[in-house]
Amino acid sequence: MAQSVAPADAAIPAITPLSLKAIAPWAVFIGLLALVLLYFVGAEQGATALVSGEGIHEWVHDGRHLLGFPCH
Q: Which parts of the chain span the membrane according to its record (predicted)?
């Protein structure tokens, strides 16, 4: 008593491949975003700090330990 959702003669659409031109801007954006995140988790404390105080450190404290960055 199972019924098919699509008729038996329905055409299956072809999958179109993505070109490198279409993927490159997104890959660059995600790469830069990952580097900024890595900076704030790993290096935003000390002489190279962009933000004064310990606010950023407190927000990413557990992530620092999870990734193996020392902070104490």
A: 23-42
pTM of the model: 0.58
Look at the block and give the residue holding tokens 């659409």.
13
> How far apart, in whole angstroms, are the C-alpha atoms of residue 30 and residue 25?
9
| pLDDT tens for the 72 residues of the chain, in order | 566 666 667 788 888 888 999 999 999 999 999 998 888 777 766 666 777 777 777 777 787 788 787 766
DSSP annotation of 1 reads: -
Calpha distance 15→47 (Å, rounded): 51
SS3 content of the chain, % helix, strand, coil (to 5): 50, 0, 50
